[in-house]
Design goal:
Elements lengths: L1 H25 L12 H7 L5 H7 L4 H27 L12 E2 L3 E2 L3 H26 L2
Antiparallel strand pairs: 1-2
Helix pairs in contact: 1-2, 4-5
Amino acid sequence: MIKRFIIYGLSGLCIEVLWSGFFSFLRGDIRLTGHTYIWMFLIYGMAIFLEPIHDRIKHLPFILRGGIYTILIFIAEFTTGFLLRCILGVCPWQYNDTPLNILGLIAFSYAPVWFIVGLLFEKLHYLLKSIEFKQSNY
């Protein structure tokens, strides 16, 4: 379980760096400067708690699964952002200038992104599961 937590955390960090690097390019930064926050490792690592949900909804069409993941990611993003703001006095991400935001902690305009990320993490879960199964058969 700890290994999968680490893999999810590192995967999330990589996604964030690639995402922010891509958008830095769109803003004219040819260096493709990407960034993230160390807190995100822990937050993305929590994707391990989605594994039982993956298994329960795998029979549903991908549109429904992606929608469920989007809602769950919004809940996690709002909750962790709110807790960080209460504990540290600041949330690393700010959606204040983003349309359709709630308290600057989540932005509904990111729904397509979280839809895709949820499905990617689902695929990662099944990949990790197959690797663990193959290793246990040796």
